[in-house]
């Protein structure tokens, strides 16, 4: 009789959040920035999403920004179905304007080595490196070897030169000879060298000795339409380790939200009142921090102890 009363008393004391812990509000980590949904594996709050994407996205005055060592990019779209991010660098060249300076205009694209397995430019994205110096690492190699410059997904410099931007470029017509040089160590390297990110693994304009860059990605079959129809910007893809899908699936199936531990960067299933390194049904909780109210495990433990102390009385 008394244990039942005790139990009812405990249940009566349970804060509403704990009673609802079967399903953590999905909004715990999902949010909006402007009209873009920020959801797993990304997060705008520390501890949300996957650790591979920590300290990456920031919402500044309703504009979603992505920060990398090479600079900040505006995020135009997050495609969760195809795991793609569409980025814009306002300082890069496009079909209508060339942005160049001796020190290099624009961000390029450099990812932290630890983040590289999670975030890369899409293999179909072309980087058009502009005005790279003859001493550039791009052009150093063995005599007779060809430049790393090539067409990527049907997009390349031969077509890019047809853009209006080049008509206004000083010496635009006279630069034809520089456009065609194709051997390593050329005294006059090409004005534009198109590369795939995978070929050089970092678009660092100062390291490559380039004055600027453009970037374009293909939408459907663009080849026939020419450079005016290319989408200018950087298309990046993100990926997660395969074993992670099991963790996150189990976490969600038990009503949790997938996150990470801010200290260890390990996987963490956010279960509302507590956090678990596996899922919300498991006892192996890491909910050491109790925010204001008693944690569910302490309550359950308390109830069990209360019940057990009454057993001898029966
Ligand atoms: C967001 O709104 C802009 C116009 O304000 C639009 O061009 C863009 O496609 C929208 N993005 C998404 C993801 O809906
Ligand atoms: C659970 O983890 C998140 C993210 O690391 C943290 O913000 C929150 O305070 C943790 N909650 C508990 C109860 O430990
Ligand atoms: C780019 O290269 C320069 C020179 O090699 C180096 O100092 C700089 O740290 C690099 N930038 C990034 C973002 O890696
Ligand atoms: C790139 O494609 C164009 C035609 O679209 C072709 O003329 C050119 O030779 C190609 N360049 C390279 C480096 O393959």
Report the C-alpha radius of gyration, rounded. 27 Å
Which H/E pattern describes the elements? Answer: HHEEEEEEEEHHHEHHEEEHEEEH
Beta-strand portion reads 15-25%
Low-confidence parts, pLDDT < 50 over ≥5 residues? 1-22, 172-177, 181-185, 285-314
Largest sheet: 6 strands, antiparallel
Number of helical elements: 9
Overall average residue pLDDT: 81
Give the fraction of residues assigned to helices: 10-25%
Number of domains: 2
Strands ordered across the widest β-sheet: 3-4-5-6-12-7
Shape: elongated
> Structural class, judged by helices and strands?
alpha+beta
The number of strands is 15
Q: Which small molecules are bound?
A: 2-acetamido-2-deoxy-beta-D-glucopyranose
Q: How many angstroms does the end-to-end distance come to?
A: 10 Å
